[in-house]
Write a structure and sequence with these properties.
13 helices, globular, 21 strands, FAD/NAD(P)-binding domain, 3 domains, seven-stranded mixed β-sheet, alpha/beta
Length: about 475
């Protein structure tokens, strides 16, 4: 009688720290743990290494947006006293430049991940239990602590007909090398607005359909309405406060029907851009086996140190929320690694949160909003100043928007600031430092603000607040 072949046991490796996902949060956590002298493994089965920001997010989108801004300047050259006849987009050339830019960042990140500081597994991982994961090839990794940093993916909400209709996500928009004739954008968040304006500036006819009463609803009403008017002035058709009724494919592209101001509206276009949000990438991770709970939003439930409901497992970045921002993800990853190995980091706090939208005009905000301050029962004062009464912005023809400073009463400590206008993402940095360092308006007034610069506009609300205090 022939004997049965011996069953091969799965090879098992052991590490101090295993990071699932090699994007911004995962790499930051792995680097921190390695600097603490720990044996670290990174598991990343993506086709390309680098993470969302480098490959399909921040860097490619801002590269293309900047190209479209340069084109917009050229097409409006007569405002500044020069002619740029027939300036038009060459999407293939824009794509080549984008690829060259992100290739440098991706190559550098790949080198970091493949360095001898870590053991890199180019596979996917699934939790077997609370202390181990199984890789695609069947091997097993055990660890003292784990970090889940798997990021997010585009979501497809329940819109009638959407699942039967071909559509783009931000991934496809960022890969376009030919000019689309027309595009309907579903959504009014950051990604929707940034890329809708990009598409319009390179020459597409764009319609934006937002379900909420205004675009960019997480920012102030003044900020979102300023951007919305800029969109309309550039020829983007904007519908807000809508209810989507039906999306369907047509012979020539797509049709979208929606309720708006009591009437049924239909718009047709060659392409549909689904920008209705993203969701945490947690599918097939085996989180139930590891006793890791999810929030209703789909994010991993974490505490201030990024610890999940399993004390050995942490989460950071888009998969944990609450803010899908790279510098937040990095700090979350570092906090998790320090905490996992007995350090005493400060818990995550978002009182000095910095947010930027790269539309034109840009929106930037740092600190606590007025609604958040009221909810906490804090007394404060605000002061603002418009760009259309500021020297540098006038000569730049960048007169949309305003700056606003929020200060504690009576101390004058800067609790928040908003900038809507040209290069707001750059201008907000001065006030971000003020919020983080707990500076007051008097401290900022004592600094020199060079004339003529865009940044000196902050002196006007700061002086107003100082006088009122």
């Amino acid at each position: 009688m022939q004997e049965s072949p011996a069953i091969q046991s799965k090879p098992t490796s052991r590490f101090d720290f295993v990071v699932i996902g090699g994007g911004s949060a995962g790499y930051a956590a792995a680097r921190t743990a390695a600097e603490l002298g720990k044996k670290v493994a990174i598991v990343d089965g993506a086709k390309e290494l680098g993470g969302l920001c480098i490959l399909r997010g921040c860097m490619p989108s801002k590269t293309l947006i900047y190209s479209a801004e340069a084109l917009h300047f050229a097409q409006n050259g007569e405002t500044f006293g020069f002619a740029a006849d027939n300036a038009k987009a060459d999407l293939a050339a824009m794509q080549r430049r984008k690829q060259e830019v992100i290739a440098e960042f991706a190559e550098y990140r790949q080198g970091q991940l493949e360095s001898d500081r870590f053991t890199l597994f180019r596979q996917k991982a699934r939790f077997r239990d609370e202390g181990s994961v199984e890789l695609t090839d069947g091997s097993v990794i055990e660890a003292d602590a784990f970090l889940v940093a798997t990021g997010s993916v585009a979501s497809s909400p329940k819109v009638p007909g959407l699942d039967q209709t071909s559509f783009w996500t931000s991934d496809e928009v960022l890969e376009l090398d030919e000019l689309p004739e027309s595009v309907i954008t579903l959504g009014g968040g950051v990604v929707a607005c940034e890329l809708a304006q990009f598409l319009a500036r390179v020459g597409a006819k764009v319609t934006l359909v937002q379900r909420s009463p205004r675009i960019l609803k997480e920012f102030s009403k003044e900020a979102s309405l300023c951007v919305e008017q800029a969109f309309r002035d550039e020829g983007i058709e904007v519908f807000t406060g809508t209810q989507l009724e039906q999306v369907e494919e047509t012979d020539g592209g797509v049709s979208v029907r929606f309720q708006h101001e009591g009437a049924l509206v239909e718009r047709k276009a060659a392409h549909l851009f689904n920008a209705l949000g993203r969701k945490p990438a947690t599918k097939n991770l085996g989180l139930e086996a590891a006793q890791v709970e999810l929030l209703a939003s789909g994010h991993l439930k974490t505490d201030g140190f990024q610890q999940t409901t399993n004390p050995r497992i942490y989460a950071a970045g888009d998969c944990s929320g609450p803010h899908e921002i790279v510098h937040v993800a990095i700090r979350q990853g570092e906090t998790a690694a320090f905490h996992a190995f007995g350090q005493a980091p400060d818990p995550m706090s978002y009182d000095a949160l910095l947010k930027v939208v790269f539309t034109d005009p840009q929106i930037a905000f740092v600190g606590l909003t007025e609604d958040e301050l009221r909810a906490r029962g804090l007394s404060f004062l605000t002061a603002s100043y418009p760009f259309d009464d500021h020297g540098k912005s006038i000569l730049m023809n960048a007169m949309r928007g305003h700056v606003k400073v929020i200060a504690e009463k009576p101390s004058g400590r800067v609790l928040g600031a908003e900038c809507v206008g040209k290069d707001a993402g750059e201008l907000i940095q001065a006030l971000s430092l003020a919020v983080s360092l707990r500076a007051n308006v008097q401290d900022l007034i004592r600094a020199d603000w060079y004339h003529p610069t865009l940044s000196e506009i902050w002196t006007y609300p700061l002086e107003d607040l100082a006088e009122e205090l």
